[in-house]
Amino acid sequence: MKFYFMHLMPYADLDPDYDQKYNSAWITLPNSYYDPEKGHVLYNRYLDELEYADQLGFDGVCVNEHHQNAYGLMPIPAVTAGALSRRTRNVKIAVLGRALPLLNNPLVVAEEFTMLDNITGGRLIAGFVRGIGAEYHAWGVNPAESHGRFHEAHDLIVKAWTEPGPFTFEGKYYDFEYVNTWPRPYQQPRPPIWIPSQGSSETIDWASHPSRKYTYLQTFTPVSMLAKYMKMYKEVAEGHGYEATEDQLGWSVPLYVAETDEIARREAQPHIEAFLNKFLRMPKEMLLPPGYLSLKSMMGVMKAKSSIGSKQTIDSVMEKGMFICGSPATVREKLEQYQKEIGFGHLLTLLQFGTLPAELTRKNMEIYAKEVMPYLRDKTAAPATAAAGGAGG
Predict the structure, then answer these.
(1) Is the entire prediction scored with pTM above 0.70?
(2) 290, CA 20 to 30 Å: which among 11, 124, 303, 383?
(3) Phi first, then psi: what are they for 178, rounded to 5°?
(4) Separation CA 85–CA 370 (nearest Å)
């Protein structure tokens, strides 16, 4: 199993009483709540944390894209990834991901990502998403066109990376007389592509197709639904005539580890509850606008995200497996159990969430890196080592 430090870069200085006047930290919350001087401090603190993950031995760091909100201050994730590309040495840099349907020109992403791939010498992981429903309100894009725009943008970017230019591209949404991307990717034929999702069955079908076999990431979901979607991916792959590997499956989850279960719960509680009830707060119609999902996928995502918009507690999300919290022994036990039962190969932990301050974030990172990651590396590497030894013998 591989370990990644994921960051949302929230506006941690958000006035917690904003919800007395506004129903969401997304889209409709006035940007007068943002103080640039505090933002300057937060941005640099968060970059320091991402760089520290490289020093602690994580396999990768993850940044992402959200617009017009206090939940995540990365509207252009390539800016963050660019800052990290020269300040890290070993970690993969996963941009999870660029919301392709929002773009007027997908070649911007083709160019951004190849620059990052060249600067880092092949440490880029390219994440493509449709973007959650709120992004369509932010950018004024028709959510009913989401699937079509995503697939066409994806095809254009991959073709720009893998076929010699110049060539023409004529599609329903994008039309170019010249496609001739400079620079070309460092990784050949292209960087690895990951597909984060809330649980769309269409996304699983598409990502698992034999022509792609993209790594599928399930984000912030009850562990029961995680197991369902991971199983769905494996079954669809089997239907295509191949066996999906653990490398094709990933899970993103907030986590907090401390000296004891009691200390971990006490230190994490106000910050995870702020994350859930202040930063993640949005009405359902903002999260899932009409036309964004098929009826089948809408029903599944609504079940997976049923808690969004309602009051949540640390106990409710711990019970569902949506938040891992406890001593190193407790956290090791839970993660080992989930990995054994579900079989994911990439674990993306959100070790800073909501209002969690710098000192507790660093403490969380250090204990996790020193007392959880090595144990799970050994446990998950053992079967592969044994299998390799048997084959070699």
Answers:
(1) yes
(2) 11
(3) -130, 120
(4) 24
